[in-house]
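Student:
Attend to each token:
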Amino acid sequence: MGLLSLAIWLPIAFGTLLLFVGRDDRIDLVRWLSLVGSLVSFAVTIPLVTGFDGGTAAMQFVENTPWVDRFNLKYHLGIDGLSLWFVPLTAFITVIVVIAGWDVMRDRVAQYYSAFLILSGLMIGVFAALDGMLFYVFFESTLIPMYLIIGVWGGPRRVYAAFKFFLYTLLGSLLMLVAVVYLYFKSGGSFDVATWHRLPLPMNAQALLFFAFFAAFAVKVPMWPVHTWLPDAHVEAPTGGSVVLAAIMLKLGAYGFVRYSMPIAPDASHAYAWLLVAFSLVAITYIGLVALVQKDMKKLVAYSSVAHMGFVTLGFFGFTALGVAGGVVQMVSHGFVSGAMFLCIGVIYDRVHSREIAAYGGVVNLMPRFGGFVVLFAMANCGLPGTSGFVGEWMVILATVKVNFWLGLLAATALISGAAYTLWMIKRVYFGAPGNDKVRAMTDIGSREFLMLALLAVGVLWIGLYPKPLTDPMGASVAELLRHVAVSKLP
């Protein structure tokens, strides 16, 4: 097995093992086995980063073996600068989720951790797959463990939220399956993604393919107006489910745009870029205002995710190197920041058992160490310079201004609403006098909670203060993508 196969199948193997050895009377064994599995899986991804050559746009760590000979299906894996960082990010977030649920999960613990480990491997498979059908299999398979995570360990309306999540994402992906089958026959019986990139396709075919992929990827991002499943899923999901959903699963759709939609249908991508830019700007502006009036903390951060992901698609469809790189940086940053925001909500929910903003007040008086982390992550969510939230959004805004000043100005002014809803929530929940007796009984975070928040804080500050190691490896791949998209593929 190569490194990518290990990164995919090690967490799946550990997750499967948990199903066989895990019982509720073996909780300690389950916890430690889950932690070892997540740490080993993360360790495997480190050589991918240290051994990556950022000077080339070629796929690296490639594995290509026959899968189903009759249909020319291949087990084809590889990563480039566009997908590199999402592999270790996925494994890292899984470690955080295991630590977060250590003392909290008491019911079906083995199945809970198993779902997250298997989900981790499947998501890494999405980022590494270079065979169209393999990509589709991994892409769809991620629905199953997340559906179970929401439906089994979620809140009172978990079944409704799980079904809504599953149906939205499944229906969008069915059109992508049609596109995959069409490209298979059009390419003479090949599922190789690189072959699809070279296909000369007429404009009507490109348009249909573009919107077929759009149906799958836009729902997963999620873009306005197909975002309505996300707040329900976040509100009902357990803390670990919300963290993985926001930090990684939303990135699957955005990644699909740069790996499939843009290079396979470049002419259609240029022709309909205005539509995606419009949707992105609506998400950035309107959804930010929607977040401002939320009473549930999880729902507020969920709407915040829709707004922040709007910067990603805005950067991609401006077709500039700065914008595309900024979109990728924003995806990685959002993985740290959104994951941290949901973890912070989980920390206080475990003590008070309420997500309502009105149920709190003055938390920082009882939890000063925790308050420091909260303020840091809130500043990153606002896009404060020096944090990761600033870097990607600033790159996208600057790139958009170069394309169209007024669109860039609109995106920039939307940052005001981001600061408004984040700071308004922080003020009401964490500052002032303690709101009630439940708040007065709260205790500060322990070593486990401190560890998981500190790890995320390091990521937020690292990207914010020194993003060069993050941006350099993607330069050649971004340039090659834009060169490819700039050349018409019309026959």
